[in-house]
Write a structure and sequence with these properties.
3-stranded antiparallel sheet, two-stranded antiparallel sheet, mainly alpha, 152 residues, transmembrane, 5 helices, 5 strands
């Protein structure tokens, strides 16, 4: 199975987090409340995912973090993704045990569909955060060059 490089994946995750954060602040994209242009109250993003200003802020901030130099090497950002979203998933499962509805957790609006997305993000973050193919590929190329140099 071919997977894109960690750097490309980390950048996509960061951009998607920024997009989710910005969309979470957009009133028309969040249903279930009376907010106008800017969403500040609890509602559902696209009518499905629990969202409020704190949840949107977390996605926006974490996405911006992923676009900075702090997130280098890219596997660091992916491991942070796995840790953050994995911890949120576990906390939700422990606190609400899958009960339906939008719940408040650490000031953030979350529900079952949002938690399933967080679980998926954590799994993908773990998959890409623990990858060694970027370094192994570079090491093999260097080893191949040294073998050719020694033989030639």
């Amino acid at each position: 199975m071919h997977l894109p490089g960690s750097e490309q994946t980390a950048r996509r995750f960061a951009l998607l987090n920024v997009l989710i954060g910005i969309t979470g602040f957009t009133g028309p994209a969040v249903t279930g409340n009376r907010d106008g242009v800017v969403n500040i109250r609890t509602g559902k993003l696209f009518g499905v995912f629990g969202m409020n200003w704190a949840h949107a802020s977390l996605h926006l901030g974490f996405g911006l973090l992923g676009l900075t130099r702090f997130a280098r090497p890219p596997t660091r950002y992916m491991r942070l993704t796995a840790g953050l979203f994995g911890a949120l998933t576990a906390a939700y499962a422990w606190m609400f045990r899958g009960r339906p509805g939008v719940h408040m957790m650490m000031g953030m609006a979350v529900n079952r569909p949002a938690n399933l997305v967080h679980l998926t993000w954590a799994a993908l973050g773990l998959l890409y955060g623990l990858r060694r193919t970027d370094r192994i590929g570079a090491g093999r190329a260097a080893a191949g060059r040294s073998l050719r140099d020694a033989a030639g």
